[in-house]
Every structure is written in C-alpha cells, then in structure tokens.
Design a protein that fits this description.
Blueprint lengths: L4 H10 L7 E5 L5 E3 L13 H9 L4 E4 L5 H8 L4 E5 L2 H9 L5 E3 L10 E6 L13 H10 L1 E12 L24 E8 L2 E2 L3 E4 L3 H10 L2 E8 L4 E8 L3
Parallel strand pairs: 3-4, 3-6, 4-5, 6-7
Antiparallel strand pairs: 1-2, 1-8, 7-12, 8-9, 8-10, 11-12
Amino acid sequence: MGSDIFGAAMLDYLNNTYKEDIVTRSSISEDDTIPVPYLFRSYAEMPIIEQKALNLSKGKVLDIGCGAGSHSLYLQNKNIDVTALDSSKGAIEACKKRGISKTINAKILEHNSTTYDTLLLLMNGIGIVGELNKLGDYLQHLKSLLNTNGQLLLDSSDIIYMFEEDEDGGYWIPPGKDYYGEVDYEMQYKNEKSDTFPWLYLDYNTLQRAAILNGFNCELIVEGEHYDYLAKLTVAKQ
C-alpha cells in the first residue's frame, strides 16, 4: 500500500499523539473515515461476527492481517496459542507494545514455515486477495497452512446493495472489473497517502463456489446486521 498508514496511526494512538482518523477513498463510495480507537476495541465492543469467530478459535491460531492485535490479544489472554501476522511493520510494533508475544511481519503468501489449527481472516480479511481471479491461489496457500482438521474462519460482505438494480434485475458493474466486489482504495493519514490498492468483498455464494473448487467445505456460521457474514472453511475429505 505504499506508506504504512495503519501502522503510523496505531503507533500514534499508543503514544498518545492521536489527533485524527484514517480517511478512506474508494472507487464506489464517497470519502469515509476509520476511527483509530476502533482498531483497539475490546471483545465487548466487537460485532457478533468477530466474537463468534474468536469463540470458535482453537488450537494453534494464526491471526492474519492482525492490525492492532485486538483479536490476538483476546485469544492470548484466554491462554490460546496465537500468532499475530501483518504486512505492516507499524502494526506489528503496535502488537508488541500491547504485549502480544508471537508476531510475524510478513505478507500471508510469504509465510509458509509452520501450520495451524485455526486461521483467522477478520474485518473482511479476505479482502487482501484484491481480485476474484486470485482467490484460488490464496485459498490453496491457506489450505497448505492448515493442520489436519484445521479451520479457516473469515468474514466478508456482499456489497451488491451499493449498486443500482436495472429494470431487468441486473446490476451495473464498474468498467474494468470482473466482479462487483472488486474495489479500489486509497487511504490517507495526516499528510501521508497510500498507493491505490485493490480490495475484495465476497458474497457468500461466490465464496462457497470457490471454496468447493479448491478442496474445501464451506459453512455459513452467522450473518451480521449489514450484509456481512462469518464463514468456516475446512479441508474436504478425499
């Protein structure tokens, strides 16, 4: 993403120099903000989807795209063996400052040194895939990180509600995109801007089809209040 927007904001918050939030600009909506304190929320402040995922976590856990480490910290305090992974150097520094004992500063596709019982991809963590045509490669890599009887817990949203339906029941898809859930983002914090980067929102049916094609079983665990959901993927028996 270019500048480490999230990392800089998280460290400012921990160093008590936080004064403004992260601004997001996307290809499908007006400017929005991500309140930095929300990245440090407690379990009680998390939506039901995240709480459910944490309650289902078991064994050796990898928290992918951990951010400020709120999920990892909760699991660690429950004496669960959790490792926080993020490509943001600042995010990992923030996790360490918060007392998370196991951290990895890397992109998920670069991490292949060990396997886990639970993989977490929360706060629309599957968005890191960026484009639908890359989903299979990511799912295959994630499958390689799972122990026998392991699970992948991920949440996402169906953003079809953001598009207008035409008279024939179809939807307009932005030019240059193969799927309506492919969104381009840019972020700004203080005077620093990120490069434009792709992010993927997946409707459940599309996720389920991709999961089956890549050797997973896919189960809808819970639906949220705004077109979002939590899914569990497990490796299908041969």
